[in-house]
Amino acid sequence: MSAYHCLYTMRAKERAPVVVLCLLPGQAVATGTNRGGLELWNLGSGTCRQDLVGHHGRIKALHLVDSGRTLVSLDEQRHLRLWDLPGMRCRVHIDRSDHEGIFRLLAVSDDGARGFSVSDRGHGCLWNLTRGDIERHVELVFSAAPVRVEFGPGSRQTVHVELEDRSWAALDLTKSACSPELPPPAVRYKNGHPTYQVAVVEDRIVLRRRDDGRQVLVLEGHDEPVLCAALSPDARSAVSGDAGGTIRLWRLEMGPAGATAR
User: Fold this and answer.
1) Rounded CA gap, 18 and 30, in Å?
2) What Rg value do the Cα atoms of the chain yield, rounded?
3) What's the per-residue H, E or C state across the chain?
């Protein structure tokens, strides 16, 4: 039997469309909007914990690094910020508004020292986040469009790229060489569950099995098109954001047959 229920409904500032989510330790989530809004939410109470002010363009990526102490955010105007979460302040701001193209994807090393971005024109940049500059540029040639980039576990030298056709490639930054290679599970399942994944399909939230893509459940309840969703590492909850600025926290309980039960 498949079932679910919504625990909390939250509203982004100015009801701006919520376009990206990042689950944080301690029952919290960071949400980014298409107007530069960046908010931290307490999922235990459904309230806004902090409004992080500084971005003015659409938030393109959010990453949690440095053992959960640092949140990295990137906007479409090519501003990258590193936020100290314990102190709730921005400690690094990198302005590359002079850079060509719009940064579309971003990977950050686990220690927060290096970043790798991919632009809408397929151009790669390796960032030194400690110095606040670009180390070098990398020309990327793939068989399909990149949809996700991640550094290898504990690595500053290898970036794994997931392509639109669900294949993977490994980029060796020391040689700027790329080869087809399936990444370790720690990369494939990062910020997710090894058996299940959540995706936005035709404005709906769909829970699927990773092995065969089989649909397990469709979560319904948003009044506006859903733009982003995230599944907790234990697959017991999911968070979603829509075009009307609504954020929902869903309760999921995995049943014995791989479905969800209320």
Assistant:
1) 10
2) 18
3) CCCCEEEEEEECHHHCCEEEEEEECCCEEEEEECCCCEEEEECCCCEEEEECCCCCCCEEEEEEECCCCEEEEEECCCEEEEEECCCCEEEEEEECCCCCCCEEEEEECCCCCEEEEEECCCEEEEEECCCCEEEEEEECCCCCCEEEEEECCCCCCEEEEEECCCCEEEEECCCCEEEECCCCHHHHCCCCCCCEEEEEECCEEEEEECCCCCEEEEECCCCCCEEEEEECCCCCEEEEEECCCEEEEEECCECCCCCECC
Query: Please, what is the Cα angle at 173 between 170 and 174, to 5 degrees?
Result: 125
* Model pLDDT for residues 6-47, shown as the tens digit of each residue: 999 999 998 999 999 999 988 899 999 999 999 999 999 999
Which pair of structure tokens corresponds to residue 71? 């949140």
